[in-house]
Design goal:
heterodimer; A: 293 residues; D-Maltodextrin-Binding Protein, domain 2; 10 strands; globular; B: 230 residues; MetI-like fold; 11 helices
Chain lengths: 293, 230
């Protein structure tokens, strides 16, 4: 066999390896006699990364012979996917963005699904001296006064949106000129890892912090307490809502299945399952069903 | 250090135990990048040969575009492909978004300038005397091109390796247009990002070791092939 033939053979082999297998099926890769309908859920990294959806969704998939494709992005991007009709339903946590989403007619039927809380974490050494303060606003003010390093998500996520709300409540607009304020433009995990290395304060959702705690030896919770019961600041509550993408804008989306999924999320059975998730791994639930009180 | 060691140990365990999800993710990575590489080889080698051997109007502009493409951030390609394939975009009717097809499209766009650029450089470095000689022997344009590509084979093979390296390890574009959907569009790189975000550093490292092993094996294979060709 000539060398030239070998090259042709190699290219054909490449095409063959690539061609066989699942790459051609349009949506998903799991063959099934009764191919399940697919519903796309755009959600935030906090819900997906915690593992909650992997635990609760199989029951829905079985009951409705459906497959839920979870796309985990920031709240900003999740809403954008909904706006463009690239997701059928969104599960997000940024109330002001959600209200705008529904008001503009991009989404319909907002439902409260669950909540948890944010905590302010910071260096064990607590350079700003804010450990144990009951209110986040007070702690944020002290961080600004003492110019202690603060790491911000800076990515238009639900957590970033909450952080900005707290800064605005004390009349501060963080900008790049403030040398103690670092806008990272990163996800929660990356931001916590950065804060751990740079000995910075940061606002985090409790679930992600608990999941990463073992890798963050330099950080501790300074405001928000060890569990949600110890969190005395209602401003730190973190409610999640499910919103259907408006089917009038995109007739092709899976409107019916999306509605079934949203309704299923708030059934008693699902809510009970949400309430117990995380107790085994973290000694406390990561999400609480229903609407924040 | 402990994470590193655990990662290596876990990588071996995942492979040896035949963990089905790890296999599926690995296979999908190879499929997506393999098909994308096949397409970009089919486009890139002829294009590189054309740019290296012919002079025509607009050649410099095309070369400038190819060089720009070689250094373009994959995430921007991902964003453009997303906007193209979104239901709100011009090709939304295809239903490709968040499927392997979208990932293949993005990776083809990322890798073909690499293949074309390096192929062009390789054929240009071939002694011009060869071309004159082959032509004077009565070879057709096609035969001359093949003869020069053959002479430049080391460089052409490197162009294909560069193209593959550029996409198998790429994360920005496949994350955006694939969506990192479990069991459907999750590949090694996006799985590594996910596990890092989840704080499972050892699992992330395990997947990284698998990726490293694949790249190493493919480079070995190609170097071996190159040795036989010389």
């Amino acid at each position: 066999m000539s060398m030239r033939h070998r090259i042709v053979l190699l290219v054909m082999l490449m095409l063959f390896i690539g061609g066989c297998g699942a790459t051609n099926s349009p949506r998903g890769a799991i063959p099934n006699a009764h191919a399940p309908a697919i519903v796309r859920l755009a959600t935030t990294t906090s819900t997906a990364d915690s593992g909650l959806l992997e635990v609760i969704l199989p029951a829905f998939e079985q009951q409705y012979n459906a497959r839920v494709e979870v796309i985990a992005v920031g709240t900003g991007q999740a809403l954008k996917l909904g706006e463009n009709g690239d997701a059928d339903v969104v599960l997000v946590h940024a109330r002001s963005h959600e209200d705008a989403f529904v008001a503009k007619g991009l989404g319909i039927n907002r439902r409260n699904v669950m909540y948890n809380d944010f905590v302010l974490v910071g260096p064990v050494t607590d350079p700003a001296g804010i450990a144990g303060m009951p209110l986040a606003a007070e702690a944020f003010q002290t961080i600004a006064d003492t110019a202690a390093t603060f790491a911000s998500r800076g990515d238009d996520s639900g957590t970033h949106s909450k952080e900005l709300t707290i800064w605005h409540s004390i009349g501060i607009t963080p900008t790049a000129e403030l040398n103690w304020y670092q806008s990272l433009g990163q996800g929660m995990g990356e931001t916590l890892i950065t804060a751990n290395e740079q000995l910075a304060y940061t606002l985090a959702d409790r679930g992600t912090y608990l999941a990463l705690r073992d890798n963050l030896p330099n950080l501790t919770i300074v405001v928000g307490g060890e569990t949600i019961e110890d969190n005395h600041d209602p401003a730190l509550l973190n409610p999640y809502s499910v919103i259907l993408v408006n089917p009038e804008r995109y007739p092709d989306i899976q409107a019916e299945l999306a509605e079934q999924l949203a309704a299923w999320l708030v059934t008693d059975e699902t809510q009970a399952q949400i309430a117990t998730f995380g107790i085994d791994a973290y000694g406390q639930p990561l999400f609480f069903p229903g609407m924040a009180q | 250090m402990e994470d590193l060691f655990n990662g290596l140990q876990q990588a071996l365990a995942l492979i040896l135990d035949g963990d089905s999800e790890t296999w599926q993710i690995t296979l999908l990575s190879l499929q997506v990048s393999g098909v994308a590489l096949a397409f970009s080889t089919l486009i890139g080698i002829p294009l590189g040969a054309l740019l290296g051997l012919r002079s025509f109007q607009g050649r410099r502009l095309v070369i400038a575009l190819i060089y720009t493409g070689m250094g373009f951030p994959p995430v921007v390609i991902g964003l453009l492909v997303y906007l193209l394939l979104s239901r709100a975009g011009p090709l939304g009717f295809l239903g490709w978004l968040f499927t392997p097809s979208a990932m293949i499209l993005a990776q083809t766009i990322i890798s073909f300038p690499l293949v074309a650029g390096f192929t062009m450089a390789a054929v240009m470095s071939v002694d011009p005397a060869l071309r004159t000689q082959v032509t004077s022997l009565g070879a057709s344009t096609m035969q001359t091109t093949f003869a020069i590509l053959w002479e430049a084979r080391t460089g052409v093979i490197i162009s294909v390796i560069a193209g593959f390296g550029g996409i198998i390890s790429e994360v920005g574009a496949v994350m955006l247009v694939g969506g990192n959907i479990q069991g459907s569009t999750r590949v090694l790189t996006t799985a590594i990002v996910l596990e890092t975000r989840r704080g499972r550093f050892d699992l992330a490292l395990a997947l990284a070791f698998i990726l490293l092993a694949i790249m190493f094996a493919i480079n070995l294979l190609i170097l071996r092939l190159q040795g036989k060709l010389d």
